[in-house]
């Protein structure tokens, strides 16, 4: 039976994320074995949550500059659902429950980025965001918000300058179709909300 086994790793770079060189063995059904080297971005697991207001039913999204997009030459801020890393402390406080750790991260990131208070939080699924290069697992949520308790905008200490946007679901869909919303995780959540609109927006 075909199988891949990790044989060895070495760290190439350690920073906000870690880049590892992995030595792999690919075993084929016919008995052949091939040695492979693969660069692996050892990234922290993260959360993404699509917010909507209970009163107006409008989506609450963010807009911020993302270094890889600027690096690629696309010089515009990225419109996206609220997102962020799950801190190691979150996992340490919930060692047997990764979903509980993710929910702690959701509450923190929503408050920091948007200033809104979550009234109801629904977990959807956890998906690998880019399994060909990264270890990141992304936990997807939809949440209703009922009160803006602070300004939001992110943390300047982390280089964030986040604008909080509000728009209808149809406006968000139009921005996906026009290419103005180009963030994959956000599009996944917008399409989920389209399919389950009655459950959330009435």
UniProtKB/TrEMBL annotation:
Binding site for Mg(2+): 83, 109, 113, 160
Cofactor: Mg(2+)
Top-rank taxon, per record: Bacteria
InterPro entries (alphabetical): NDP_pyrophosphatase (IPR004385), NUDIX_hydrolase-like_dom_sf (IPR015797), NUDIX_hydrolase_dom (IPR000086)
Keyword Secreted set for record: no
Signal peptide location: none
Entry GO CC: cytosol
One of the GO BP terms on file: ribose phosphate metabolic process
Keyword hit for Metal-binding: yes
GO MF terms, alphabetically ordered: hydrolase activity, acting on acid anhydrides, in phosphorus-containing anhydrides; metal ion binding
Pfam families hit by this protein: NUDIX (PF00293)
Complex and partners: Homodimer.
Family: Belongs to the Nudix hydrolase family. NudK subfamily.
UniProt-recorded name of the protein: GDP-mannose pyrophosphatase
């Amino acid at each position: 039976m075909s199988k891949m086994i990790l044989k060895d790793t070495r760290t190439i770079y350690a920073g906000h994320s870690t880049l590892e060189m992995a030595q792999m063995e690919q075993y084929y059904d016919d008995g052949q074995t091939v040695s492979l080297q693969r660069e692996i971005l050892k990234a922290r697991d993260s959360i993404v949550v699509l917010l909507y207001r209970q009163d107006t039913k409008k989506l609450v999204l963010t807009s911020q500059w993302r270094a890889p997009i600027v690096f690629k030459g696309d010089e515009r801020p990225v419109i996206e659902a609220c997102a962020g890393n799950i801190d190691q402390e979150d996992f340490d406080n919930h060692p047997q429950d990764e979903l509980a750790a993710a929910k702690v991260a959701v509450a923190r990131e929503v408050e920091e980025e948007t200033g809104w208070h979550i009234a109801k939080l629904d977990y959807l699924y956890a998906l690998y965001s880019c399994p060909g290069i990264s270890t990141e697992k992304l936990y997807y949520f939809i949440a209703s918000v009922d009160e803006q308790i602070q300004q939001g905008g992110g943390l300047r200490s982390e280089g964030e300058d986040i604008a909080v946007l509000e728009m209808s679901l149809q406006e968000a869909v139009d921005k996906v179709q026009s290419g103005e919303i180009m963030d994959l995780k956000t599009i996944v959540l917008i399409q989920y909300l389209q399919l389950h609109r009655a459950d959330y927006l009435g």
